Amino acid sequence: MGASQNLGSSPPQSGGEVARAKPETERGTPYQPSRRSPEKIARARELRHGDNQAEATLWNELKAKRLGGYKFVRQMPIGPYFADFACRSQKLIVELDGRQHAESSYDRRRDEFMRGEGFSVLRFWSFDVLKNTRSVCETILAALEGRLAENVVAADLRFVLAARKTGDSAL
């Protein structure tokens, strides 16, 4: 065999190295800074590392697209607030509340802000996540699939449907 023959399955030599994939920043794509401020990123990390057992339990069910193949993120900043869990593709926020949130006017303002940003908000009691995880997940899945199509206020959950483009009235 001659020295110029190509052996095996190597790509043919074309007078230079085979092009290797480069990170986007080296491919000529301009660097784009994060849309979020360093302060919001730090705060979201701090919130994710808190020791809230209900959030940890629910995150275990939502992470890695485990619930119906929907992707969730934790502690997503939305305006001045942080959503406990958010499914961006379906514009759904899931909030877990302890006793301090009972009839909270702050939470109602927060829900209205998120609703105005196009997100539906689903609130559960932390206790219910710990004791009835399956039911909570089934309710989240119903909201994701559009089976919850109106506002719901009950003792164990609150669902605020996203504002419609035509001027939907608030709850």
Distance between the ends: 81 Å
Alpha-beta classification:
alpha+beta
| Beta-strand percentage range | 15-25%
CATH superfamily: VSR Endonuclease
Helix-residue proportion: 25-40%
Q: For this structure, what is the CATH class? A: Alpha Beta
Largest sheet: 6 strands, mixed
Low-confidence stretches: 10-29, 167-171
User: For the CA atoms, what is the radius of gyration?
Assistant: 23 Å
Task: Give an account of the 3D structure.
Residues 1-40 are annotated as: Disordered. Residues 1-13 have a biased composition (Polar residues). By secondary structure, this protein is of the alpha+beta class. The protein has one domain: Endonuclease, Chain A. The protein is built from five helices and six strands. The protein has helices at 38-48, 53-62, 105-116, 126-131, 133-144, and strands at residues 73-78, 81-87, 92-97, 120-125, 152-153, 157-160. It has a six-stranded mixed β-sheet with strand order 1-2-3-4-6-5, with helices on both faces. Mean pLDDT is 79; it is low at 10-29 and 167-171.
